Amino acid sequence: MANKDKVNIVPAPEGYSGQGFFATKFSSVIGLARANSLWPLPFATSCCGIEFMATMASTYDMGRFGAERNSFTPRQADMLLVMGTISKKMAPILRHVYEQMAEPKWVIAVGACASSGGIFDTYSVLQGIDKVIPVDVYVPGCPPRPEQILDGLMQLQEIVKNEDMYRRSSERYEELQKSYKFE
After folding, report:
1. By the 8 A CB rule, do 135 and 94 touch?
2. Quick one: which H or E segment has residue 178?
C-alpha cells in the first residue's frame, strides 16, 4: 500500500466520468499523449550539451517526463533542443535540421548562447536561434543547470498539452511560417 501512495498519476483532462467510463475531447487526449512522449533531438555544440547529458543521466532522468528516447535523426524527433553557440555558418544547417523534422515539432533554446548569442557578440555568432527557426521555450543560463532544462521541458509539455491539435493549419501558424520564409 505504501508504494501505491507514491505513484504520481497525470491528471485526466476535463471531461465526464462515471462508473466504468470517461469521456473527453479528442484533442485533449492527443495533447496529453504528445506532451508525455516527446522525442528529443539534441543539437549540442558547447558546454550546454554537457548539462543536457547530466539531465539525461540517472540523477535527473529526463525519461521520467516521457523523453526517454533521444533521436539523432530529425525525421524521428519532435522536440529540437539547441544547446550552445551557433555560428552563422551553422545557421543553415540548423534550419535544415528543423525543416526535416516531421510535424508537429517544438524547439527549446537551451542556454544563453542559443537564446541570444551569449557573451559572443561577434560578427560570426548567431545572436539567437530565433533568427532562423521559431522557438517555443527559452532556458536561461550559462550553462543552465539540469533542473532548468527539466523546467524548460515541463513548460514545453504545458504548451503541447494546451495547444490546438490543428494549430499547424491555423492562420497564426501560417503567418509564422511565412515570417521565417518556410514554404
Report:
1. no
2. helix 171-179
Q: Is 97 helix (H, G, I), strand (E, B) or coil?
A: helix
Measured over the CA atoms of residue 104, residue 128, residue 154 and residue 172, the dihedral's sign is negative
**Rg of the chain on CA atoms, in Å:** 18
Whether residue 90 is contained in a domain is answered as yes
Neighbours of 64 (CB within 10 A): 11
Counting Cα atoms < 13 Å in the Cβ hemisphere of 120 gives 19
pLDDT per position as a tens digit, 54-66: 998 888 888 888 8
Cis check: omega of the bond before 13, within 30 degrees of 0: no
pLDDT in tens, 11-69: 777 888 788 888 888 888 888 889 999 999 999 998 888 999 999 888 888 888 888 88
pTM above 0.90, yes or no: no
Look at residue 106 and give its three-state secondary structure. Answer: strand
Is residue 17 in a domain?
Answer: no
State the Cα–Cα distance between residues 139 and 68, nearest whole angstrom. 20
- The answer to whether residue 140 is domain-embedded is yes
Q: How far is CA 81 from CA 37, 74, 92, 175, in A?
A: 15, 11, 16, 23
Instruction: State the residue range of the domain holding 72.
Output: 39-179
Amino acid at 2: A
